[in-house]
Amino acid sequence: MKYLEYTPLDSISSFLSHVNLGECILKGNLEAYSCKHTGMDKKLSLSLEKEFLDCLAESPGSFSSSPSLSSKDGRKTLIYLVLTLNHMYPDYDFSAVQAHHFVREDALDNFELKFNSYMLEAAREWASINGESSLLESTLRAIDEVINLEECEVYSYYPDFEEDPSLEKGAIWSFYFFFYNKKLKRVVSFRCACLSKLVMDDDQFVDEMQMNDDWDIFDGMDM
């Protein structure tokens, strides 16, 4: 996979990189990747293909995942999603991720519903600094410009609790979506997590503060 730079995604990612919500910090990212294999991708891709086929051979009737392990296209899609995770979190190994961790969404409405539920405060902050524009509409417009939403398959990712990188950093909640355009051979990933300032360790807290040059982060905290 290769990271692709797209201006339409930059302003959304820049905003989501650090949203101060009082007792919490919201951190998100919107990234585009080409499905062309680079570096170790080919080796991991072959390993995942073998693993998926072995799982299918052991229990051929027990897999009803979406994407499906029983089809070549389904396995290829799963491999692209796992490779994307590896590039999103280069310090983690997602080679053990299983098919049931991904769910294909029947409609874009599911993404919009979760977005509106979890991003309410962030959306208000975005509107206050962007002329009352909608964060959801701005996000969908940016994704559409890069990957054409009408041609996309939308997947959500539900990792096991102990395997979610965001939770290791003190996240209260997190969610992941992937927009895959088979025709363009391109994936757009959307991840977001809400981190409690009370759970973040001192070093991480200082890193966040220095990275964003946001000394107002102390507002509302008991010192």
Automatic annotation (TrEMBL):
<keyword id="KW-0539">Nucleus</keyword>
<keyword id="KW-0804">Transcription</keyword>
<keyword id="KW-0678">Repressor</keyword>
<comment type="similarity">
    <text>Belongs to the MAF1 family.</text>
</comment>
<dbReference type="GO" id="GO:0005634">
    <property type="term" value="C:nucleus"/>
</dbReference>
<keyword id="KW-0805">Transcription regulation</keyword>
<dbReference type="GO" id="GO:0072702">
    <property type="term" value="P:response to methyl methanesulfonate"/>
</dbReference>
<dbReference type="Pfam" id="PF09174">
    <property type="entry name" value="Maf1"/>
</dbReference>
<dbReference type="InterPro" id="IPR038564">
    <property type="entry name" value="Maf1_sf"/>
</dbReference>
<dbReference type="GO" id="GO:0016480">
    <property type="term" value="P:negative regulation of transcription by RNA polymerase III"/>
</dbReference>
<dbReference type="GO" id="GO:0000994">
    <property type="term" value="F:RNA polymerase III core binding"/>
</dbReference>
<dbReference type="GO" id="GO:0005829">
    <property type="term" value="C:cytosol"/>
</dbReference>
<dbReference type="GO" id="GO:0033194">
    <property type="term" value="P:response to hydroperoxide"/>
</dbReference>
<dbReference type="GO" id="GO:0072718">
    <property type="term" value="P:response to cisplatin"/>
</dbReference>
<dbReference type="InterPro" id="IPR015257">
    <property type="entry name" value="Maf1"/>
</dbReference>
<protein>
    <recommendedName>
        <fullName>Repressor of RNA polymerase III transcription</fullName>
    </recommendedName>
</protein>
